[in-house]
Amino acid sequence: MKKTKKTVKPFVFYTRLHLSQMTGLRAANISQLMELIKQVSGSCIYHHTHRFLQIHQYLSPEPPNDFAYWVNYVLGEDELGERLASIDTVQFSSIRSLREKIIQTIENYIENNPLAKLRFSRKDEEFHFIESISFIIPTKYSVTTLRDFSRTLKKVTIDSIYFHIFESRLRLEKQNNDFSAWIDDAFGNKILADSIARLDPYTHTLEDLRKKLINIVDNAIKK
Q1: 216 and 201: one domain?
Q2: For the segment 133-177, what is each residue's pLDDT rounded down to a tens digit?
Q3: Domain residue limits at 182
Q4: What b/e string do you get for 33-72 counting C-beta neighbours within 10 Å, with b at 16 or more?
Q5: What is the pTM of this model?
Q6: Is residue 4 part of a domain?
Q7: How many separate domains does the chain show?
Q8: Is 2 within a domain?
């Protein structure tokens, strides 16, 4: 592939703004937690499994999800907390499938530990369900070459990178992140697309993820 190759399918960078909104729903034990996980919106599940990445953008990765934290540190159910924390979020292409895995994990634990249902949190330590409301807006950046794509990755905000890597894939139930999908579709460069798709974004801070993406694209351009 030539370095100057252009595509007629430009990549438009989007960014996101988000608000956190209380739902008024809360759980005091494992059974209540599981039943509400079944009922709440996908944006609520998304918030409680990705909140750390949204807020602590520069800190060390591999955060536990909120469910794991509450079960472990509030209810004292260490084993279930570990099981929930060990769910590999990157394996799931939709919030729906991630929700089902969380529910299944809790159901299996309750089945083998029925007395766990009798353990309640203190009155002021219930699990409060919160929704993440996103507003997606286009940026001024649109690119038609891989070189411009790499250069633009250096300019856009980490909110833009977050959206195209995490949110668009999970919340819109896409099979791949936006960057890999565009490179494969626009250039037919499956090797580069797969290299980006294989990245585990949950093991990088967002700034480190930006650097990793740029390095992968630049190395592909050189070849």
Answers
A1: yes
A2: 888 999 999 999 999 999 999 999 988 998 898 777 776 667 789
A3: 11-16+135-222
A4: bbebbeebebbbbbbbbbbbbbeeeeeebebbbbbbbbbb
A5: 0.73
A6: no
A7: 2
A8: no
